[in-house]
Each structure stands twice: as C-alpha cells, then as structure tokens.
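Worked example 2:
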Amino acid sequence: MHSSRRLLRGVALSLAVGLVVAACGGQKVGGGGDSSGKGSAAAKPCGTVNLAMNAWVGYTADGAVIAQVLKDKFNCNVVQKNLDEQVSWQGFGTGQIDVIMENWGHEDLAKKYITEQKVAVDFGPTKNTGYIGWYVPPWMATQYPDITKWENLNKYAALFKTSESGGKGQLLDGDPSFVTNDAALVTNLKLDYKVVYAGSETALIQAFRTGEAQHKAVLGYFYEPQWLFSELKLVRVALPPYTAGCDADAAKVACGYPDYTLNKVVSSKFAESGSPAVAVVKNFSWSNDDQNAVARDIAEQNTKPEDAAKKWLDANPDKWKAWLG
C-alpha cells in the first residue's frame, strides 16, 4: 500500500492471474432506475477494464466500488487482477493493467513508468490521505504515556520481547514483501528492537486486537485509512519528523513517514481509449471514512466486496453520480 517505502519489491507474480468480474446487467447502483450516467458517455462501448487489486482491504473497497459503477452504468467487463504493487505497475507497459486505484507515492515507479517510459498517467487524487507509522494499543499509551515518543522506546524494549525477537524488543511489520523503512529506522535511531513480520495485514490486526484485549505489549507498523480505527483507537508513536529528502537513501533513513496524498494511476493506452470508464476513474474520490465503511463491511462483517460496494453506493448516490461526469 504505499509509497516506494510501503509495499512490494519485485514479487514474481504472473500478470495473467485475475478474477473476472461479470459485466452483464445486474442491480443498478444507487438502488433506482434513474438514467444518470447512461447518456452521452455510453456512445462508445466500455470494453474491458483491467483493474489491479493490491493486497489490503482498503484497496479492495476502492476496487469493489469502482467496478460496480463501471459494470452497472456502462456494461464494462471489469477484470480484477490480484497483484503486488510493483508488479501492477509493470502491467502498464504490457497492456495487462489499465488502472491502479490507490497508489501510495512510489516515486521510483512513477519516474520509470510515467516520466521515462510514458506508459502510465497520474489520474489525480482519490481524496484519501494516507498515514504510515508505528502504533501501540490504547492500553499501553494509557499505562505508559511517554511510550508514544520514539526516544523512550528503548526504556520499554523488554516489554516487547518475543521468542522471535532475539532478546530485543519486537517491532511487528506486515507481509515480508511490504517495503518499509523500519529496519533502517531501528538501526539509525539506535533502537534495541528487531523487525519481525506478522505475515499479512490480517495478522497485524489480530495482534493489535489481542494486545488490547489481553493487555499484551505490541509495537507495530500500521497505516490509515484502515477500518480497524473505527473499532480500536491505536495510538501512533511519534517518530522524527519527516522532511523532504530525508528518506532518499534507504539505508540512512532516520525520519518518520510522510503523509501521502493517495492517487490513481492508469495506463496511457487506457487514458486515451475514449472509454466511458476513463472519466469515472478520473473523477473517483471519497473520504477515509467512506473507504473505512466499505472495508469494515468486507473485513469484519464478511460481506462480499460487491455487496459491500452496493450498500455504500445505495447510501451515497450524490457522491458516485459526481464521478459520472
């Protein structure tokens, strides 16, 4: 999820892997039989839209909602491809990916595929703001108020020892393929901690939940927007402030993460295709709360992504109708 620091070195996944989302008929978004969106934009068939699906539930929410609108309003054939972030960008040049719905910076990939190869286009913000950092469960911030400053973490390192941390405090990260600055931060800030991988976003969430319920010490990498914050008010640890360029050398990073204006990226071929899907993707925007509502239904209520999307669309017609142009 996330900047060039956030997710995924070149994981060798096939760009051919995908889930075809049926494009025929279906329930109309917004719950009504109104004709909004079908008019002039429908003059050209939508065709197929190849949508990258990256591995966090907030992205699943983005993808489910945009897919539902494209299917129901323009009869698009939306093909959702479960891919890591970096692999998704590679698909712009091969024609196998048309849209990335939530990009967390990736300055290196933007330079390569947008600026140099010109096979991709920045399609503007989603209006979500992304935050990455280190968090502790609420009970820890209450019992140890000064633990929320990085300068005091060594004082509490013993609390975070686990069988996997080698006698040091454990800093819990997500999937091993997530790219973060955490190992460099531990070294450069001289912290008595070891980065240990939980394995997934789901495992991170469970660790924080268990930590709060059982008053276990947990220090972990996490991010917003994320539906868990509507349930559990994790407390962010203040890292050294981010300044422009402080993370330029990955091995020397000693600053926190920047705030991210999340954006959409599409292939140049898609942008120039004349498909009615182009305007919808370009106009797509919603709030962190909007995304969290859909993501929570998917992750916590076990709602199918398409059903969670329909629920949100039915409740927010003014928002999605604005995307239709």
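Confidence is low (pLDDT under 50) at residues 2-42. The chain is about 30% helix and 20% strand.
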